[in-house]
């Protein structure tokens, strides 16, 4: 990986961590708080692409696992990864990859609406799929109960998906990072 790629990956890792400075919204009926960090997942994939976006979230999750207090509310440590929020946090990695993969695939015909839809697929659906499944397992709930408790996150995540789509489209027009990675550099 080139130094420039490492800088982009590090920058998005730092942005996701900085989004953790916003306090979480804790709800009385679920141990999984509402945070702004899923916005960073969508931004990483949509701006950096699959490989670099995934890598930025992988580094973020590894930092959390070793105890860096960079999750919203100053949380960190391996206990958070194996706790009720763990599936969502692990889902960040795969979600960023899926968003990036879709953005790369449709790069030449990209619109804000398409990025918004890609953010929904990778940044919401994939993250929820892992998060809800893991939360149900850890909390001894059936999958339906866990899924119903996750409905409260959808309105905010749709707003984050739209914000990330607008930002990513602006980046594509002003300073596109994805098209600068060609097949020779990726190998």
From TrEMBL:
GO-annotated cellular components: plasma membrane
Membrane topology of the entry: Multi-pass membrane protein
Pfam families linked: BioY
InterPro entries named among the record's database cross-references: BioY
Top-rank lineage group of the source organism: Bacteria
Keywords: Cell membrane, Membrane, Transmembrane, Transmembrane helix, Transport
Coiled-coil region list: none
Transmembrane segments: 7-26, 32-50, 57-74, 86-103, 115-136, 148-169
Recorded GO MF terms: biotin transmembrane transporter activity
Location(s) in or outside the cell: Cell membrane
Record's signal peptide: none
Record carries keyword Cell membrane: yes
Family: Belongs to the BioY family.
Protein name as annotated: Biotin transporter
